[in-house]
């Protein structure tokens, strides 16, 4: 008999991708489906996945075992949110109102609003208060079924404030059930005090920020925003090549508002991911497929920016790029932390099927973070991360859009919600 300290039973349908690597092309939507299922965990890891009848015969609950009754619900892997800007301060609802009245995101950035207004708010925070803010957000993510998340700096834009953001992420995540992967985004935009001296700011990233981030192991990834209001391809290449030299892996904000050649740069750098991609060229997507770079769609942000372009879901699938779907949670372009919402937009605006969206928000997202051997699917040996949804099968995840119906969250083999 297999000992278990947590058993989820009463599952009408369990759906999960399988394996330790991303699924691409026609394989993307290949899920294992088990009806009348049960899952058992022991000491944080999954020890049994299968039919409930078999579970009863092979699993021995320990005396202190936690039973979780799914009550006829659907069990999916914990969501992996591969793109967030978690350590922000303040909201930007007045800019949102301006956008509703016709201003564009780029107009607001050009007059010093947007990212720079959040930078101002973050610079007024200290490590402790920012960590407390992030901790609250991690609780919210967990309640929405996210058990692993990526989080970026990028609202400090000077050595102290960038490092303070990364430290706050570490403080908030320490001992928290949500596993965090951290990304240094000093190249989010050029801060006000370096306007007209952008070369000096880039030198500051190269000479001061990157060495400290690497030496203190404050981040796994480095990211840059390639855009007319942020950095050119040449500037991003310089920064991210240096980051690679320090052992950091690379992600990229690419081709969000125009075809800037971001997808091609991501492929050239063998980046773990290129994110946004609304305007990516066919050539760029083909290069990403060859390089094994994941394409991260942020369809809630595309929607929230009221863009005419749709997120290129089918184009990525057809090109053979592993597709990831994430929130982009941030105060400017996606003030929504729900991965359920990201799946609604992925299916309804980016053309993914429900099964493809499930893989894109779990296994493929984990792969893009280099964590697919530990999380992203419900399989024996992986971390015990799963979500009970109050509906009879996975299609309802998107079919009944508008309200997440999460009734229980298990993270690290413990019931946390
Ligand atoms: O991913 N595109 C650039 N960065 C963020 C927006 C950050 C902000 O507006 O505060 C994004 O959409
Ligand atoms: Fe982003």
TrEMBL record:
Q: Which domain of life is it from?
A: Bacteria
Q: Where in the cell is it found?
A: Cytoplasm
Q: Might you report a single GO cellular component term?
A: cytoplasm
Sorted keywords for this record are: Cytoplasm, Histidine metabolism, Hydrolase, Iron, Metal-binding, Zinc
Any GO molecular function:
imidazolonepropionase activity
Looking up Gene3D superfamilies in the UniProt record yields:
Metal-dependent hydrolases (3.20.20.140), Urease, subunit C, domain 1 (2.30.40.10)
Q: Does the keyword Oxidoreductase apply?
A: no
Residues annotated to bind 4-imidazolone-5-propanoate = 92, 155, 188, 256, 333
Q: Entry cofactor note text? A: Binds 1 zinc or iron ion per subunit.
- Binding positions (Zn(2+)): 83, 85, 253, 328
Which InterPro entries did the record assign? Amidohydro-rel (IPR006680), HutI (IPR005920), Metal-dep_hydrolase_composite (IPR011059), Metal_Hydrolase (IPR032466)
Q: In which pathway does it act?
A: Amino-acid degradation; L-histidine degradation into L-glutamate; N-formimidoyl-L-glutamate from L-histidine: step 3/3
Reaction(s) catalyzed by this protein?
4-imidazolone-5-propanoate + H2O = N-formimidoyl-L-glutamate
Instruction: Give EC number(s), comma-separated.
Output: 3.5.2.7
Primary enzyme class: hydrolase
Q: Which GO terms describe its biological process?
A: L-histidine catabolic process to glutamate and formamide; L-histidine catabolic process to glutamate and formate
Q: Which residues bind N-formimidoyl-L-glutamate?
A: 155, 330, 332
Pfam families hit by this protein: Amidohydro_1
| Residue ranges of domain Amidohydrolase-related in the record | 74-416
| Named cofactor requirement(s) | Zn(2+); Fe(3+)
Protein residues bound to Fe(3+): 83, 85, 253, 328
> What's this protein's family per the entry?
Belongs to the metallo-dependent hydrolases superfamily. HutI family.
HAMAP family, alphabetically? HutI (MF_00372)
Protein role: Catalyzes the hydrolytic cleavage of the carbon-nitrogen bond in imidazolone-5-propanoate to yield N-formimidoyl-L-glutamate. It is the third step in the universal histidine degradation pathway.
What this protein is called in its record is Imidazolonepropionase
Source organism per entry reads Candidatus Polarisedimenticola svalbardensis
């Amino acid at each position: 008999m297999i000992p278990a300290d947590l058993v989820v039973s009463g599952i009408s349908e369990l759906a999960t991708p399988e394996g330790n690597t991303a699924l691409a092309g026609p394989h993307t939507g290949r899920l294992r489906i088990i009806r009348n299922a049960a899952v058992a965990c022991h000491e944080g890891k999954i020890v049994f996945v299968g039919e409930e009848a078999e579970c009863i015969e092979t699993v021995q609950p320990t005396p202190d075992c936690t039973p979780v009754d799914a009550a006829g619900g659907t069990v999916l892997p914990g969501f992996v949110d591969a793109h967030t800007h978690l350590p922000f301060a303040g909201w930007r609802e007045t800019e949102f109102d301006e956008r509703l009245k016709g201003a564009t995101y780029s107009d607001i950035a050009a007059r010093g609003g947007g990212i720079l207004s959040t930078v101002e708010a973050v610079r007024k925070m200290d490590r402790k208060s920012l960590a407390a803010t992030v901790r609250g957000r991690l609780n919210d993510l967990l309640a929405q079924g996210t058990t692993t998340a990526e989080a970026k700096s990028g609202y400090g834009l000077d050595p102290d404030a960038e490092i303070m953001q990364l430290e706050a992420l570490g403080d908030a995540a320490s001992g928290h059930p949500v596993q965090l992967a951290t990304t240094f985004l000093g190249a989010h935009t050029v801060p006000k005090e370096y306007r007209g001296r952008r070369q000096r700011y880039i030198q500051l990233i190269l000479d001061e920020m990157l060495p400290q981030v690497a030496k203190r192991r404050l981040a796994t990834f480095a990211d840059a925003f390639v855009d007319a209001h942020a950095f050119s391809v040449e500037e991003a290449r310089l920064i991210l090549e240096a980051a690679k030299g320090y052992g950091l892996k690379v992600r990229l904000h690419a081709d969000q508002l125009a075809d800037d050649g971001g997808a091609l740069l991501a492929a050239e750098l063998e980046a773990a991911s290129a994110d946004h991609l609304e305007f990516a060229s066919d050539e760029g997507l083909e290069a990403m497929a060859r390089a094994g770079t994941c394409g991260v769609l942020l369809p809630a942000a595309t929607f929230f920016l009221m863009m005419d372009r749709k997120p290129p879901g089918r184009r990525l699938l057809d090109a053979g790029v592993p597709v990831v779907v994430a929130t982009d949670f941030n105060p400017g372009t996606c003030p929504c932390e729900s991965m359920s919402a990201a799946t609604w937009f992925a299916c309804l605006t980016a053309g993914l099927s429900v099964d493809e969206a499930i893989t894109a928000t779990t296994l493929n997202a984990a792969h893009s973070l280099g964590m697919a051997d530990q999380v992203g699917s419900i399989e024996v040996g992986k971390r015990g991360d799963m979500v009970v949804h109050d509906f009879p099968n996975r299609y309802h995840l998107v079919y009944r859009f508008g309200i997440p119906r999460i009734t229980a969250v298990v993270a690290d083999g413990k019931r946390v919600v």
